[in-house]
Structures are given as structure tokens and as C-alpha cells.
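Subject: design request, 108 residues
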């Protein structure tokens, strides 16, 4: 998913998101898809730096916590925008693939 964002490929990013995804404030899969598309349109370059991941595995599901630093720019050398978050994600196995079914993020 990180690579898909950095390569400005929102459809590839969304391949990993479950149909019933839920995020902060009731963000659903469609709203997430629109947000990802908006960032790709607004930024010629997108950068992501993810902190160490804390993973809790269970039968057919996992919770992953990490920090994220996101930057965006219009193509110049230095990013013009950026932010950092603490992120908690929930994953489940669906037909042999892992899908993101929830995410919570808090600005640092």
C-alpha cells in the first residue's frame, strides 16, 4: 500500500481494503478511496515513512500499530506539506489475501 501511494496508484492501494472498511468518524471504503484520489491529484510526489510496526496476530486477523510521516509536494525537491500520525489498523484474511478492514489515526 505504501508503494502504491508513492507511485500514485490509488487503485492498487484500494485492492487491499475490505468492502466493509471503517475509519475515523465513520469513513467508509468509498470515502477512503476519494481521499486517496484527492491526495494523488493534489501532490505530484507523495512520500511515506512508517515507524516500527507492532503486530498482534490472531487466527485469521491481525492488529498493526505504527507511526506514519506523510509528505506531499508539487514536484519540487522539498515537500511542501506533511504530517505525522499514530495509526492502528485491523486486518483479516479473506480468501488467502489480507484486507484492511479498519483504521484509526491520531495526528501527532
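Subject: RE: design request

Done. Sequence follows.
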Amino acid at each position: 500500500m505504501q508503494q502504491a501511494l508513492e507511485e500514485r496508484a490509488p487503485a492498487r492501494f484500494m485492492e487491499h481494503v475490505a468492502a466493509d472498511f471503517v475509519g475515523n468518524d465513520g469513513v467508509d471504503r468509498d470515502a477512503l478511496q476519494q481521499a486517496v484520489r484527492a491526495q494523488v491529484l493534489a501532490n505530484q510526489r507523495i512520500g511515506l515513512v512508517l515507524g516500527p510496526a507492532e503486530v498482534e496476530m490472531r487466527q485469521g486477523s491481525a492488529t498493526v500499530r505504527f507511526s506514519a510521516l506523510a509528505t506531499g509536494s508539487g514536484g519540487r525537491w522539498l515537500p511542501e506539506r506533511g504530517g505525522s500520525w499514530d495509526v492502528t489498523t485491523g486486518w483479516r484474511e479473506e480468501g488467502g489475501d489480507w484486507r484492511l478492514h479498519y483504521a484509526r489515526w491520531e495526528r501527532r
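The longest strand covers residues 81-94.
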